[in-house]
Amino acid sequence: MRFSEQLIKTTKEIPSGEQSRNAELLIRGGFIDKTMAGVYTLLPMGLKVLNHIVRIIREEMESLGAEEIFMPALQPKELWDATGRWDTMDVLYRVHSPDGSHEFGLGPTHEEVVTPLVKKFILSYRDLPRAVFQIQTKFRFEARAKSGILRGREFMMKDLYSFHATETDLLAYYERAAAAYFRVYERLGLTALKVRASGGAFSDFSHEFQVIADCGEDLIYHCDACEFAENKEIATCVEGAPCPTCAAGTIRVSKAVEVGNIFPLYNKFSDAFNFAIKNQDGTDQKVLMGCYGIGCTRLMGTIAEVLSDENGLVWPQQIAPYQIHLIQLGADDTVAEAAKDIYEKLQSKGVAVLFDDRTDVKAGEKFADADLIGIPRRVVVSTKTIQAASVELKYRATGETSLIPVQQFLDEPYV
């Protein structure tokens, strides 16, 4: 993509009314645009990043044997009445049909849809276990929509639901799902902790996946030597105390951003929809369920918060909107032709390139834009580099800069 042909441009202005670093950087960098509090448009580069995040999540969910579906966001009131949550869920958007004859909820979650859906296809213990997932827009009325895309009123989420005949099978799958979550975060360049939390109305416990960050709204108590971690809401220890699990470590308290959660739902929703199967002796048995969520847009906001620096965004290579940020310095024909030739050769190899071909912008502004946008490699073509038969390559994450012969640069495996 040529910079000169992009619809969206960067801006030096800090967005009015934004209090979060992720929204400031993503808006200034041309990744998102604010429509209203808690609601954002994903612009072309932002959508590229989100699609890469979604691809990684999808791959790991499929590795669990889960099948992808796509459920409706518009849900009939009757399903929510069946679980008793129509009048109790405070984040639920409730809407009426134009003629007033029907009421609907805009899905903040999908237990009310997935349970009766899967019930249609699972009739016997032989049909279990099964798991389905979706990646879809969710709607929640967040009273504190001031954290950019970390806490949106409309956002993208992956939710997976598993169905089991026994508690042993449910808990084994639960641990497999947790391992898949860790793989997702590792591939995204994040370090996440598995944090024990309240199970609410579903079970005695749940687990959150938390990334330590100053912008976090949660407080977690965690060991500095082992994997012990608890949310403040259920914490059984105090800061500075010995770890109750390993005894060798010390309990630390940190702010953190929740980037995923998993719940053993047991029979909470199968009871509501009378979802039972015939077991081996022919008697009825309630199906047990698990729920596993990841906020896709929230992950994008978290990466913008914790992997950025004072100059802008720093995208991991796996999810960057482009792999190369090619910059043409100078408007003379020799430089322009050399830069164009490199651009076309990279494209022919399938390398995603953002080509800053602007001739009315100074070098300093181009470099500042490159730092703000955060593409992993910045490549400069100028009179100086042409004289050396090279390009100047700079890695965004480390700042390491070097001159590399053009052909050697083109032969690198960037895809």
In what range is the share of β-strand residues? 25-35%
* Strand count: 21
| Poorly predicted sequence stretches spanning 5 or more consecutive residues | none
CATH T-level fold name of the largest domain: BirA Bifunctional Protein, domain 2
What is the general shape? elongated
Mean pLDDT reading: 95
Total number of helical segments?
A: 11
Cα-based radius of gyration, to the nearest Å: 25 Å
Provide the domain count. 2
User: Major β-sheet, in short?
Assistant: 9 strands, mixed
For the termini, the CA-CA separation is 16 Å
Summarize the structure.
The chain has 11 helices and 21 strands.
What does this protein structure show overall?
With 415 residues, the chain is of the alpha+beta class. It folds into two domains: 3-306, 2-Layer Sandwich (BirA Bifunctional Protein, domain 2); 324-411, Rossmann fold (3-Layer(aba) Sandwich), CATH 3.40.50. It is 28% helix and 29% strand. It has eleven helices and 21 strands. The strands form five sheets. Strands 3, 7, 8, 9, 10, 11, 12, 13 and 16 form a nine-stranded mixed β-sheet that branches. A hairpin with a 5-residue loop joins strand 14 (276-278) and strand 15. The longest helix has 21 residues, at 167-187. The model has no long low-confidence stretch (mean pLDDT 95).
